[in-house]
Amino acid sequence: MAQTIIDLLNKGIKANKEDTYRQGNIINLPQEGSLVISGDIHGHRRNFEKIIKFSQLENNPDRHLILQEIIHGGSQDEQGNCTSYKVLFDAVKYKLKFPNQVHFIMGNHDTAFITDSKVIKDGKEMNRSMRKALEREFQEDYTDIELAMSQFLLSQPLAAKCCNKIFISHSLPNYSWADEFDPSVLEREIDIDDLIKPGSAYLLTWGRKHNKKLLEKMSQKLHADFFILAHQPQEKGYIQPEENLIIFTSEHNHGCIMLIDLKKNYTTEELIKAIIPISAIS
Known about the structure:
Elements: H1 2-17, E1 22-23, E2 26-28, E3 34-40, H2 45-55, E4 63-68, H3 85-97, E5 102-105, H4 108-115, E6 120-121, E7 124-125, H5 126-138, H6 142-154, E8 159-161, E9 166-169, H7 200-206, H8 212-222, E10 226-229, E11 238-242, E12 245-248, E13 256-261, H9 268-273, E14 275-277
Parallel strand pairs: 2-8, 3-4, 4-5, 9-10, 10-12
Antiparallel strand pairs: 1-2, 3-13, 6-7, 8-9, 11-12, 13-14
Helix pairs in contact: 1-3, 1-6, 4-6, 5-6
């Protein structure tokens, strides 16, 4: 059982690295077809399955799907420990089924797992909780599974970009750290130091407080006109805090996804209309 999971994760690493649309640490999407974007999933199996059902990649060969932050949340074992890794394993299987249509992007909970740093969700330290569940399920093979998971999460790209200058990442740097962010992290292999503050991958996955001045700086650094982010909890599913910024989540009953046409140039109003409540997916 354990070796099957390790083999699965290793195949997922290879698929992430060999993704046709990957250049460095960014997915450069084509100017054709469509794109489904999910926000944080955090182990929410029903929403994950609805996103898969909605995407219908088997019937839409020119459609792409972005998944992010699968781990930490959702179901628990009998001792109350986090078993979200099971959704991660299923997401990797889906990536292997559609290797050039399914694209992961790295989130802050991923970087926390890789670096073994504390990350709190709903009052619980999630890495400790998930590692307890992994150890309980896989016993003496636990450390091998943990290592394979870390390597898979590290193999994820940091962002995706559409030809219509829409930039999709888990987050952006705080305004106070904007000048410290080095966009070359999108072009080279990630080093572990990139994942630790003030490393650029850390800043790109953990940042908040995205004001107009920050977005102007990021537009210049990333050659983007519009930003679609996750990371920040949204009780109503999404928010538009600035004219060229949408933040949304997919982790609860009010969670959302977005469906956009990769050929189309969007206004803010049109992007808002492209948001779909997951609860509306039958």
